[in-house]
């Protein structure tokens, strides 16, 4: 069982390396955004696998925090790509 977890951990880390390549060499900004979001998911996977290896539930809070930050970052970047600004202000005054 532990060998399988180590193999999964290695594959996830290799996938993160490929996604980092896409972040730096992506053909467009949306491709880079999707790669960043996928890196967040992969990071959650790595932490979950490490939590299984260490047989502890301490990292569950860290996983939740990374998921929330990743979601907020993805929404912010998406809104910036779509409209060019994140926070809209009323400029009629």
TrEMBL record:
Its main location: membrane. It comes from the Bacteria. Keywords: Antiport, Cell membrane, Ion transport, Membrane, Transmembrane, Transmembrane helix, Transport. One of its GO terms (molecular function) is sodium:proton antiporter activity. GO terms for cellular component: plasma membrane. It is a multi-pass membrane protein. InterPro entries: MrpF/PhaF-like. The chain crosses the membrane at residues 6-24, 33-52, 58-81. It is found in: Cell membrane. Belongs to the CPA3 antiporters (TC 2.A.63) subunit F family. This is Na(+)/H(+) antiporter subunit F. The lineage of its organism: Bacteria, Bacillati, Bacillota, Bacilli, Bacillales. The gene is mrpF_2.
